Structures are given as C-alpha cells and as structure tokens.
Amino acid sequence: DGGITQSxxxxxxxxxxxxxxxxxxNLNHDAMYWYRQDPGQGxxxxxxxxxxxxxxxxxxAEGYSVSREKKESFPLTVTSAQKNPTAFYxxxxxxxxxxxxxxxxxxxxxxxVL
Amino acid sequence: xxxxxxxxxxxxxxxxxxxxxxxxxxxxxxxxxxxxxxQPPSGELVFLIRRNSFDEQNxxxxxxxxNFQKSTSSFNFTxxxxxxxxxxxxxxxxxxxxxxxxxxxxxxxxxLTVLP
Lengths: 114, 116
Prior knowledge:
The complex is a heterodimer of chains A (114) and B (116). With 114 residues, chain A is mostly beta strands. Helix content of chain A is 0%, strand content 49%. In chain B, strands 2, 5, 6, 10, 11 and 12 form a 6-stranded mixed β-sheet that branches. A 4-stranded antiparallel β-sheet of chain B has the order 3-9-8-7, with no helix packed on it. In chain B, strands 1-4 form a two-stranded antiparallel ribbon. Classes of the chains: A mainly beta (114), B mainly beta (116). At the A-B interface, strand 5, strand 9 and strand 10 of A face strand 5, strand 6, strand 10 and strand 11 of B.
C-alpha cells in the first residue's frame, strides 16, 4: 500500500536537545512538506521541497532544518533554537509542486518538550 | 495575502441531522484552488475535495456536498444525515498558483461532533 509514514508517533524531548522527525513516502511524489499544528489552529508550513536536494523555507522555518537527499525521505530536525517546539507535526507529499495538486498527509508526530 | 476563515470553531449535532461547515476566503488572484480536508481523532488529514476558481458548479459525493460561491468568496461544506463517524476536525484550505508550492493556506478548522 502506498502512503506516508512518520515516526515516532510520540516524542519527548528535553529542553536544549535537537530531535529529528522522520517522514517517508512510497507514492513516488516529487514534493514534500512539513507542517506544524497547534491546538485550535490550522496548519502552518515549516519547510517544503519540490525536488531532491532542494528545499525552501515556509512561514515558520526558524528553529527547524530539513534535508532531502532521497525522493522518499524528508526528515525534519527541531533544533534547540526553536523556542516553543511542543506541537503536532504533519508531513505531506504531492505529485508535484504545483498548488493544484492535493497533498497527502502522514499520521503525524506529537512532540512534547519537557 | 490570502486568508481562510472558518468562523465555526465547534459544532455539535445529533446523528442524522444535516450540518453545514462554513468557509470564507480572501485572495487577490483570479486563479486559485480550494480544498477541504478531514482530520479524524487519529490525526492524519484526509483529502476530501479540490475545486478550482473557474468551476462554480456544486459537487455532491454521497452524503457530502460543497457549495462554491465566488460572489461571496465562500466554499461551504454540507454533510447530510450526519453519522458519528463524521466526528472530526474539518479544514478548508486555499492555494494560489503563484509559481511556488508553498502557498497553501489553511483555516483554523471546525471541530464537528456528531452525537448518537
């Protein structure tokens, strides 16, 4: 079955630590995205990538970093510079970067900073 | 800048009632796309529909229907004969084809609870 997997489902981090969230897709999609969701709010774009070895900042990229070394994978690192990292993180992919393409989402990772 | 407003934060209905979720958007572009997504308690967003700005025809898919009105910048979603399984957060989203993949703006979502 094609889809997007995110791991882990729940993640706990101590303040000052970097942590990496995994996102893998087997849909053969070119574009991948990372969103952050806070309670009672919509999704906000952190980073996106339209092609391997290329990625762009979204609206709230500060304190986050990404890489896109393989088409299937788009890991997100939450660094210690992110002031308020506790949130629900969603990874998505789409066939291409054109904005009419619907995005398909993974199950999410809930990050809690202790 | 584009904006999506879902004024209804929470809605509760009893099973079998019809319910309409409102979505109002703002954009300066003449070409854009509108989406609805469903987020069940599991957290994963599920794509429901995409509509482009040139197609104002209403769409029906089973118990779901969508009413797109450019004159009022609205893209409302109606569930007929609601069921408990419809309980979820529903997001409306807007994208503009401004040459960048980044411009997908989500509303804040409407939490729908369908009571048995």
